[in-house]
Design brief:
Blueprint (H helix, E strand, L loop, with lengths): L8 H12 L4 E2 H8 L3 H13 L3 E6 L9 E6 L1 H10 L17
Helix pairs in contact: 1-2, 1-4
């Protein structure tokens, strides 16, 4: 039986960023909000999608000559997890988990 681990700080940051978003976000937007490096972010997003916590889809580039973007948004179970992570054990909202701007 596989033991469930607590989500990492990076996972908490990414899920909170997606929870706070009014719409889907692409990876670069998530990096800007959280400060997570791409070598950590993209494998993590793939794992979260495999766990059905995120939905992802390709969006055509808004500007000619740019590549299409992979857009991410929370599923219902991902939203529930993100909401739980944003609360402390007494059920009160925690301070924002965002990374400090550099």
């Amino acid at each position: 039986m596989r033991k469930q681990r607590a989500p990492s700080k990076a996972t908490r940051l990414a899920l909170t960023a997606l929870l706070d978003a009014s719409d889907s976000l692409h990876g670069y937007e998530i990096m800007q909000v959280t400060g997570i490096k791409p070598g950590t972010l993209y494998p993590m997003l793939a794992r979260l999608a495999d766990q059905a916590l995120l939905e992802s889809q390709w969006q055509e580039a808004p500007v000619d000559g740019h590549p299409p973007r992979h857009m991410y948004r929370l599923t219902d179970s991902g939203r529930a997890l993100a909401t739980d992570l944003a609360r402390d054990d007494r059920g009160r909202p925690q301070p924002a988990l965002r990374a400090k701007p550099t």
